[in-house]
Every structure is written in C-alpha cells, then in structure tokens.
Specification:
By secondary structure, the protein is of the alpha+beta class. The chain has 6 helices and 19 strands. 31% of the residues lie in helices and 38% in strands. β12 and β13 form a beta hairpin. The two termini are 87 Å apart.
Length: 418
C-alpha cells in the first residue's frame, strides 16, 4: 500500500510540473504577443477644404490726413470737434491774428518807404546824368548816383517779399481742411498756445472716408509666400465677436518688420464699411483664404504623423518592414503637410498606413500618397487612396510599451504648425 501511495504522489507531482511548464510557456507566448496595440483609424472622406493664413492687424482709414499749423500763436476759435463732418477748404480753426496783422502793416509801411526812396534816387540819378553830360560832375559821382538807384530798386523788391511773407503768415492763422471727411482726433482747445518753431504741431486728424477702410496686418514670413493680391479675407473684431466681416488683399508690401527675430510683412486688406460699424484702431483677427478645394478626398493630419511602433515579436513590424522594402522611397517620403503639387510646384508625398486586418494579430499596409492643401486639421489626398479607405491615425495602449507609443502618436499630440 505504501508503494502505491508513493507512486501516485510521484505521478501527481509530474502532472503538476507539466501543467506549470505548459502554463509558463503559454504565458510567455501571450506576453511576447500581447504587446501588439489596437489602432485608432479614420476613413478617407470627401468634402470641401479651405487653407487659411491667419494674422492680426489694425483697422485704419485709407486716407488719414494730419492737419497742423505753420505759425505759432494762441488758438482763438474752433469750428469742429470729434466726429465732425468737414469739406475740403472749410475753416476748422483760427489762431489769434493780431500779431500777424501788425506784421502786415509794418511790412506795408516798409514797402512804401522803400518806394519813396526809389523815387528820390531816380530823380538824383536823372540830375546826375544831366550834369555829367554837361561835364559838371565827374564820372565817379555819376556812377555813385546810378548805384544808389539800383540799391533803392533792390530794397523795394525786398520789402515786397517781406510784405508777401507777412500776408501769407496772416493767412495761415486760418486752418482749413485739406480733404472731405470726418474729424477723428482733435489735439487742441480754445486758448491753447501752439508753437511751430521746429516742427509742425498736429491739431487734427481727418479721415477721408470711413466707408472705405483697410487692415494693416502682419503676416509671418513662413506664410507670406501663399498670400497674393485679390485673395478673399474673413476677419472678426472684438466689438462684434459673432459677426464675420469680409475684405480682399490689396497689397503685400515688401518692407519687412523684425521684432524679437520674427520677420513679418505688412499685408494691406481693403474693407468696405458701408454701415460704419468698424472704427479706426480696432484689432482685426484675419483669415486669408489662400486655397480652396471643393469636393476632394481628405484624411486627418494625425494619419500623416503616425509611424508604427517597434515592438518585439509582433507580425506587424515584420509586415511593415517587408512592405517598405517592396515599395522603395516610402520610408523617406516627406512628412510636411499643407503643400500641394499644383501650379508647377513639386509634388509632395507621404506614407500612411492602412489597417489590413484586425484582431489579435493586426497587419499594417503602408501606402504612398500625394497630398495637397491642408486646413490644419485635414489634408487633401490627390492620389493613392480611395474614398472609404481606413487609415491608421494612432494607437490605443494595451501594455507599457504601447502606452508610450500611444502618448507619442495619439491624435492631437504635436498639432501641425500653420
């Protein structure tokens, strides 16, 4: 009986050991294959795609005239205020003219004195000429009389110029509007003294027509290549956050502006402001439509950024390597979205991955595609994919290694730059 019990115990130990070995082997196989991740996918869809260049700018009148004064003095009268409508040639302010009126009177008196002296010297010159003819005076006295006459004539011209200058300064005491428009700034009050000894002081700013305005927007050098005259523009202002206004690109100025090593270019956008809602100085958030594609195939940009993870023992990695080997240049294709091969530009290619099979052993199939424009979320597909195809956009973590890959490739991570 003891021998039988011992034999049974041995067999039980053997069975348990075999079961443990089988279980360990099964666990090893599962562990080696269990790191295979689940994939996030998206379908190739068809729709409209719009590529934008965004910028900020300031609304300004198309013609903004700064009105100053050429003489110094005390402001005696103001005829306009902020928002006043003015016409070209209208008097908008006056400077006290008393000093300049006195200068005109003095210049007039000096001119009269010079003319009287001229008449006297003319008579002296005629008398000297007659005496010289009769040889009663010397040549020297005759020449002196002629020179004195010329000096008197020149003095008359000097006094005439001084009178003209005094009259002009008196006229500058009245300040006129140079254009039709509206006063958007007034810098003086009645009784204030203005001085124009070194520079012309600005008294008023007049906008020619607030129904036609412009946005001076700053476009980054990376985006300015796609901006051209005539392109449509949508923009918003903080005063009307729910309303979108429209305009068009009028000019892209070649003068660069550099701030903190960032180079921008002034893009002038024409705006119609018929309802006068927009006011000078408002900040505009601009979206320039640089390209539009109606009814095109598109995929999420995350599909362009996805790369298969390198996990050991998975058939996916082997299948990917074999497929890339059979399709040259796929692994080195460009990964820069947002450009297209139209208009004589070089075509841009990317590699995306199709999910050939699901389940415990998924297989990825790389496909080389040609891309077009991008709106920052989706990219146009010019060739290589059909509508409804399923492309891989990221990973769902199923293990420590896959979790790390998921965090790197998940949709929304490292969003594209515009």
């Amino acid at each position: 009986m003891a021998e039988r019990r011992s034999s049974s115990t041995i067999w039980i130990v053997i069975v348990v050991a075999l079961a443990a070995v089988a279980g360990g082997w099964a666990w090893h196989v599962h562990a080696s294959r269990g790191d295979a991740p689940d994939y996030l996918t998206a379908a190739v869809t068809r729709g409209d795609l719009v590529q934008l260049v965004t910028a900020t700018g300031t609304l300004n009148p198309v013609t903004n005239v700064q009105v100053g004064c050429q003489v110094s003095g005390r402001v005696s009268k103001l005829y306009v205020d902020w928002n006043s409508q003015v016409t070209s040639g209208q008097v908008i302010a006056e400077i006290d003219p008393s000093t300049y009126a006195a200068a005109v009177q003095q210049a007039s008196a000096d001119l009269a004195n010079a003319k009287a002296n001229l008449e006297l010297q003319q008579a002296e010159a005629d008398r000297a000429a007659e005496l010289f003819t009769n040889k009663l005076i010397s040549q020297s006295d005759h020449d002196t009389a002629i020179a004195t006459l010329d000096e008197a004539d020149a003095m008359v011209k000097i006094k005439e110029a001084a009178l003209t200058n005094a009259v002009a300064n008196l006229g500058y005491c009245k300040i006129y509007s140079p254009v039709d428009g509206v006063v958007i700034s007034r810098a003086v009050d009645v009784g204030q003294t203005v001085a124009s000894s070194f520079s012309t002081p600005t008294l008023f700013q007049i906008a020619n027509d607030l129904r036609q305005m412009q946005i001076d927007s700053s476009v980054a050098e990376a985006d300015v290549g796609g901006v051209q005259e005539g392109q449509s523009v949508d923009f918003t202002v903080d005063a009307y956050p729910t309303q979108t206004f429209n305009g068009s690109v009028r000019q892209v100025r070649n003068s660069p502006t550099t701030v903190n090593n960032v180079v921008t270019y002034d893009c002038v956008i024409s705006v119609t402001n018929s309802d006068l809602k927009l006011k000078p100085g408002m900040t505009a958030n601009v979206s320039i439509i640089v390209a539009e594609r109606p009814n095109v195939l598109s995929i999420p940009n995350s599909a362009l950024r996805f790369h298969p993870p390198d996990f050991t023992g998975a058939d996916t990695n082997t299948a990917w390597a074999l497929s890339v080997t059979n399709q040259p240049n796929l692994a080195s294709a460009s990964s820069r979205p947002g450009h297209h091969g139209h208009g004589g530009e070089h075509p841009v290619y990317h590699t995306v991955f199709l999910l050939a099979s699901q389940g415990s052993d998924p297989t990825l199939q790389p496909v080389r595609i040609q891309t077009g424009i991008s709106d920052g979320i989706s990219t146009e597909v010019l060739s290589g994919l059909d509508e409804g195809a399923t492309v891989v956009t990221g990973l769902i973590p199923t293990g420590p290694q896959s979790a790390a890959a998921y965090n790197q490739n998940r949709p929304g991570n490292n969003p594209p730059r515009r």
